[in-house]
TrEMBL record:
Name of the protein in question: NAD kinase
Top-level enzyme category: transferase
Swiss-Prot/TrEMBL catalytic activity: NAD(+) + ATP = ADP + NADP(+) + H(+)
Reported function: Involved in the regulation of the intracellular balance of NAD and NADP, and is a key enzyme in the biosynthesis of NADP. Catalyzes specifically the phosphorylation on 2'-hydroxyl of the adenosine moiety of NAD to yield NADP.
Keywords, sorted A to Z: ATP-binding, Cytoplasm, Kinase, NAD, NADP, Nucleotide-binding, Transferase
Gene Ontology annotations of biological process type: NAD+ metabolic process; NADP+ biosynthetic process
Xref: InterPro entries: ATP-NAD_kinase_N, ATP-NAD_kinase_PpnK-typ_C, NAD/diacylglycerol_kinase_sf, NADK
Chief subcellular location: cytoplasm
One annotated Gene Ontology cellular component of this protein: cytoplasm
Cofactors: a divalent metal cation
Active site: 45 (proton acceptor)
Length: 271
């Protein structure tokens, strides 16, 4: 098995990465950052998002395991001080592989230039900062509503605890095969009306957002944002590709949610 290490550059991470590299070599595990089977990230959720995008061209062939060196992460199962236990497990056992849905987006531009396609692990949003944004929303090809406000966010189940939650979306269990669309500051009055609630679509549904023509939109895809060209439509569907996590010990999703957002219980290291 070939292993890649993907890390951020803070001091604690660099120390853990050094220890991880030494331990992997001691266990005669091959480090190959170009063609890995397993990607170990060291840092936080942002580091795992970065690793996902770095390896997204081969995401179906690899799995991820995250070590967190900052605060509790959603994509990171291990803490920095547990690196020796993790390497021991990698060397001696087959992990449980869990696969979660990804978001596929296709952007159609108003000037007819070639479409752009992307994958997101957390979410993609369409926003307008200067003026009110108006977007016609279609679900599976049928007109659904005319949105007016700051923007719309379409998230994966694993991304539901990120930006989606901040804008009032529901937290979804990552085993669900779905996407969620949440509103960002919609205008609702006698003239404009939206559902004013997050929606969760069926596995074979898709969402098309058709904004009024303007060139000052921001499209976000996880940690990236761009606003370069007037667009006609963004199409969102569940991607064929999935992200795989290598679990070397069990974890309960709802314990992680409780630990990250409520924190009223005693937790052990497995959370
Ligand atoms: P960042 O460093 O600003 O991270 C933002 C926070 O989001 C961090 O605490 C990170 O741990 C957390 N996070 C990331 N993915 C998560 C997930 N799936 N579940 C729960 N928490 C998660 O930015 P970054 O590290 O580059 O990450 C980009 C992500 O940050 C975006 O995908 C977006 O979801 C999130 N974000 C959230 C807000 C918000 O809540 N208002 C604003 C901007 C970005």
């Amino acid at each position: 098995m070939k292993i890649a290490i993907y890390h951020n550059n803070n001091e604690q991470t660099l120390a853990v990465t050094k220890q991880l590299t030494t331990l992997l070599k001691q266990h005669h595990l091959v480090i190959d950052n170009d063609h890995p089977d397993l990607v170990i990230t060291v840092g936080g959720d942002g580091t795992l998002l970065g690793a996902f995008h770095h390896y997204e061209h081969c995401v179906d062939q690899i799995s991820f395991v995250g070590i967190h060196t900052g605060h509790l992460g959603f994509y990171t199962d291990w803490r920095g001080y547990e690196v020796a236990t993790l390497v021991d497990k990698i060397a001696t056992m087959q992990p449980q592989l869990v696969a979660y849905p990804l978001l596929k987006g296709v952007i159609t531009y108003a000037d007819g230039s070639p479409n752009d396609e992307f994958l997101a692990l957390n979410e993609s949003s369409l926003k307008r900062l200067s003026e009110t944004l108006r977007i016609d929303v279609y679900i599976s090809g049928e007109f659904f509503e005319s949105f007016r406000g700051d923007g719309l966010c379409v998230s994966t189940p694993t991304g539901s605890t990120a930006y989606n939650k901040s804008v009032g979306g529901a937290v979804l269990h990552p085993k669900l095969e779905t996407l969620q669309m949440a509103e960002v500051a919609s205008i609702n009055n006698l003239v404009y009306r939206t559902l004013s609630a997050p929606i969760v679509i069926a596995p074979d549904d898709w969402i098309d957002l058709r904004p009024e023509v303007a060139d000052d939109y921001v499209i976000t895809v996880d940690e990236f944002a761009n606003n370069n060209r007037p667009l006609q439509q963004i199409h969102y569907e569940i991607a064929k590709e999935r992200i795989h996590f290598a679990r070397y010990r069990t974890h309960r999703f709802w314990d992680r949610v409780e630990g990250a957002f409520i924190g009223s219980k005693e937790h052990n290291n497995e959370i």
